[in-house]
Backbone:
């Protein structure tokens, strides 16, 4: 099997991730932070070490400001529902995932927030002058997709964050696609909130994720309940991370996430990005020469994530994806990728595209075999 749906979830995981999860489930019973027996303490140590590893990856000075969640979607919802109030203005872009757009639309309709969407170019790029002008309108929060899950465009966070700080707004970055794949330094660019998944570029299990909240920012929790701390009180703790981690943590998942992050740190994010660039360049060098195939996005291998969306003139994208799977055992993603606004921006709504998203385990041989498969399909009758 050739798996190129890494934007949805990375596969295969490093062997250490599987071994770590199995070890926790098989040998380390209990709940982290809930008791004083040996295995509970061991689980607490594993959770702490994973938090420290992620903090190191993103240059987070205080790991207590890093919250474990079920994924980017929960992280984003935690900020939006915890920060915003009626009358608050939110600025976002037309490249956002539904994990951003749906809660914002709900809050616009039901909570009285005001939403402004900056239209990006068909390549997914932001007009920084237009964006800065929008910030003059007393914007409370900017929500920005660091890397497009549809076409791989990388947002220029340095410039965006400078503009955001100039107008005293807050910024939430959706790093679902960039965490573990592209360098992120929260201190350097002065991020307020960073939301990311554990099961994509961080190579952890599904159902894991995290949220960074900068010092001196206070928001309401999304969930309330037991934390294993301040149990004498029926009020939610004020201190982090406990304030946002009600309920039993997903210890096996967090342990596996720790193993995945260790792998990323050992390999180096720069090396991982360079590998993706190599694969994208090889793929684009061939596919762009075929006039029947239209590629969307920046088409600049060293300036984008290893994500390529394309359509084939006269061919149904879903049918092509099914044939890639059924005849060649190639796993792609077809459709709107939970990002209808992005597809409207690039001109592929409502039919969507075929998406190939490479991971660190993919090889140049995989690229060549995908290209051969597409040539076979193109040389047969139209679908």
Residues:
């Amino acid at each position: 099997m050739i798996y190129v749906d890494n934007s949805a979830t990375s596969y295969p995981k490093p062997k250490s991730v599987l071994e770590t999860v199995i070890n926790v489930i098989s040998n380390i019973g209990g709940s982290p932070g809930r008791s004083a027996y040996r295995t509970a303490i061991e689980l607490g140590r594993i959770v702490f070490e994973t938090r420290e590893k992620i903090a190191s990856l993103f240059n987070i000075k205080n790991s207590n400001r890093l919250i474990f969640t079920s994924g980017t979607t929960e992280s984003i919802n935690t900020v939006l529902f915890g920060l915003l109030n009626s009358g608050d203005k939110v600025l976002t872009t037309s490249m956002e995932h539904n994990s951003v757009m749906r809660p914002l639309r709900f809050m616009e309709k039901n909570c009285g927030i005001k939403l402004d969407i900056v239209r990006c170019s068909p390549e997914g790029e932001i007009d920084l002058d237009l964006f800065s002008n929008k910030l003059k309108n007393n914007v409370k929060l900017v929500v920005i997709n660091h890397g497009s899950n549809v076409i791989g465009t990388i947002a220029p966070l340095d410039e965006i964050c400078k503009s955001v700080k100039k107008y005293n707004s807050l910024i939430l970055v959706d790093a679902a696609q960039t965490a573990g794949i592209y360098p992120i330094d929260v201190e350097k660019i002065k991020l307020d909130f960073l939301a990311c998944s554990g099961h994509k570029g961080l190579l952890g299990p599904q159902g894991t994720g995290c949220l960074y909240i900068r010092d001196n920012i206070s928001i309401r929790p999304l969930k309330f309940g037991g934390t294993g701390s301040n149990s004498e009180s029926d009020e939610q703790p004020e201190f982090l991370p406990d304030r946002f981690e009600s309920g039993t943590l997903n210890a096996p998942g967090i342990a596996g996430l720790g193993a995945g992050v260790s792998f990323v740190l050992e390999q180096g994010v720069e090396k991982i990005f360079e590998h993706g660039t190599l694969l994208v360049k090889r793929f684009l060098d061939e596919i762009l020469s075929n006039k029947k195939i239209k590629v969307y996005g920046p088409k600049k291998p060293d300036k984008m994530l290893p994500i390529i969306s394309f359509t084939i003139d006269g061919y149904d994208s879903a049918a092509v994806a099914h044939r890639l799977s059924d005849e060649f055992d190639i796993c792609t993603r077809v459709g709107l990728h939970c990002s209808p606004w992005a597809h409207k921006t690039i001109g592929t709504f409502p039919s969507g595209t075929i998406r190939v998203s490479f991971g660190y385990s993919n090889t140049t041989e995989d690229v060549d075999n995908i290209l051969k498969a597409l040539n076979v399909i193109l040389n047969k009758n139209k679908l």
